[in-house]
## 1
Amino acid sequence: MMQISVQAQKAVGNPFPKGNEVTATFTGTVWLHPLVAKDSTFNLVAGSVTFEPGARSFWHTHQAGQILLITDGIGYTQEKGKPIRVIRKGEVITCLPNIEHWHGASSASSMTHISLNPNAEKGVVTWLQPVTDEQYNGPKQ
């Protein structure tokens, strides 16, 4: 028989709490609510990340890639050397392994995503330098 563990939480908008503010590897106001910690059963790290308008991650890579489920708002993502892509609620973004990129909210809207980091035994993230205002305000597609 299959066992299912469910935790119910009442929330408006995003079904998860904002969590704790994180500052070390982000510009602007960003909250992280961990959902799944790395363990030997699932080998996955997952979290809900909320960015206030203008907030974004530093440049970074994921050793095993990352999947972003955009759950609210409008944001941006960019791979090094490519134009900024506008992302919206309902989109699924795949970040390939070891590709330098960043993501965050648009300048006019907050953005929330669920991050899924598979194969965590390979490592989850390598943080790099901040995204400059000039980079953040670059051409959008």
## 2
Amino acid sequence: EPGLAPYLANVLPTALIIFDDFVPENRIIGLECMHRIIKHCAT
């Protein structure tokens, strides 16, 4: 699994923007993105 820790400042803001939406489907996509980011930063 690739490590995203060095790129966290590049990828996290986009996931947060997607999560901060009024459409429930977009919020779910944002949460899935953040889950994947956290999963790949922990390794």
